[in-house]
């Protein structure tokens, strides 16, 4: 395999200055009015950056407002029960973000009296803080000179300089970061970083970029060479597999059985209706009965089919067959889940559920045996 092409960071000071001036002037006029831009609070900025990972701005805004209202400071978040935190995050997805934010808040409250580090290395060491979030918070909240590199920034750089390196190839990240660091405006890194991301989000979009609105159009190599359709370069994604799941709404004396997932791993700490993956050659009804028995120790019988739910995660999709079941016998003995509850349907909103469960919960009708 040929080594990836090296991304040059040798750019004339004149071009760097022109990029900085044009970009920041454009941002001053065209930036969106977003709630996390109305504060200098490092905690609020941190929460927004965590939420914005792999999630659209329009989706994040109501969650951000609700979360900051519930947990306005590091100490408030640290003092909260994890289940309450997950409930506030419910539906936003990627729940490890919420768990790590909660862990980090506890560490900061214990070790630093709730003070967020204003230096890159100690902030990077916190649970869930990667290079992107560290750079974003350190530059936006504290004015430290760390270039932010997300998908929007990579796309802008790839077109601006006709970079042949695939933007979704992890080995290229350091080189994109070096180039972004070269362009970074040192006196106001906060504004420059936000302007780069905003340009990618609003103008230099993945499809149909609005080049006529771009402040850098005169400097853009891909536009000037009429090769916009070639950039950014991407490695083709692998086909996403689909998993078939069977889930049971177990009813007993007018109550429903829910179980809680382990705190680590996918959807950790959330509550759900018991079930699991089909084995080879198994039908959904048999899998539902088997999975409930293996997870909870109880025996159930299928009453009827409720619905099929389709849901996509980052690396796989699921098709979930949901059944009404009724309890036959046995005592709860958990294998896998860490807790369980028999609840009234009226209590269901008290618990945080995965989004796939939220899709069928409104369809549930309870009846007494």
If you had to describe this structure to a student in words, what would you say it looks like?
Helix 2 (42-52) crosses helix 3 (57-70), helix 8 packs across helix 11 (189-202) and helix 9 (151-161) packs across helix 11. The protein has 369 residues and is an alpha+beta fold. Strands 1, 2, 3, 4, 5, 6 and 7 form a seven-stranded mixed beta sheet that branches. It has helices spanning 13-30, 42-52, 57-70, 74-79, 82-89, 96-112, 120-124, 131-142, 151-161, 173-183, 189-202, 221-224, 284-296, 355-358; strands spanning 242-252, 255-260, 271-272, 275-277, 299-312, 317-329, 339-343. The chain has 14 helices and seven strands. The chain folds into two domains: 13-230, Hypothetical protein, domain 2 (Endonuclease III, domain 1, Orthogonal Bundle), CATH 1.10.340.30; 242-363, Nucleoside Triphosphate Pyrophosphohydrolase (Alpha-Beta Complex).
């Amino acid at each position: 395999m040929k080594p990836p092409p090296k991304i040059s960071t040798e750019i004339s000071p004149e071009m760097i200055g022109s990029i900085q001036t044009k970009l920041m002037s454009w941002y001053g006029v065209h930036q969106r009015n977003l709630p996390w831009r109305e504060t200098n609070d490092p905690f609020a900025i941190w929460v927004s950056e965590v939420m914005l990972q792999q999630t659209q701005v329009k989706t994040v805004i109501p969650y951000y407002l609700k979360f900051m209202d519930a947990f306005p400071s590091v100490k408030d978040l640290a003092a909260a029960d994890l289940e309450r935190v997950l409930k506030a995050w419910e539906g936003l997805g990627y729940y490890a973000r919420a768990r790590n934010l909660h862990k980090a808040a506890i560490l900061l409250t214990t070790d630093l009296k709730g003070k967020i580090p204003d230096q890159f290395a100690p902030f990077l060491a916190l649970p869930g803080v990667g290079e992107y979030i560290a750079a974003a918070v350190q530059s936006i909240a504290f004015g430290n000179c760390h270039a932010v590199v997300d998908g929007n920034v990579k796309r802008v750089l790839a077109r601006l300089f006709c970079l042949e390196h695939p933007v979704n190839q992890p080995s290229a990240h350091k080189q994109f970061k070096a180039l972004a660091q070269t362009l970074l405006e040192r006196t106001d890194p906060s504004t420059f970083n936000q302007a780069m991301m905003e340009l990618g989000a609003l103008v230099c979009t993945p499809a149909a970029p609005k080049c006529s609105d771009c402040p850098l159009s005169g400097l853009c190599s891909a536009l000037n060479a009429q090769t916009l359709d070639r950039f950014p370069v991407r490695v083709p994604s692998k086909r996403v597999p689909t998993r078939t799941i069977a889930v049971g709404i177990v009813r007993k004396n007018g109550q429903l059985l829910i179980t809680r997932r382990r705190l680590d791993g996918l959807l950790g700490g959330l509550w759900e209706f018991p079930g699991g993956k089909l084995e080879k050659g198994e039908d959904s009804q048999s899998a539902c009965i088997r999975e409930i028995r293996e997870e909870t120790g109880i025996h159930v019988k299928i009453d009827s089919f409720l619905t099929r739910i389709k849901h996509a995660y980052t690396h796989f999709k699921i098709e979930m067959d949901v059944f009404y079941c009724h309890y036959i016998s046995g005592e709860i003995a958990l294998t896998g889940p860490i807790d369980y509850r028999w609840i009234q349907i009226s209590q269901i909103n008290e618990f945080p559920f995965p989004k796939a469960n939220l899709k069928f919960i409104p369809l549930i009708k309870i009846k007494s045996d």
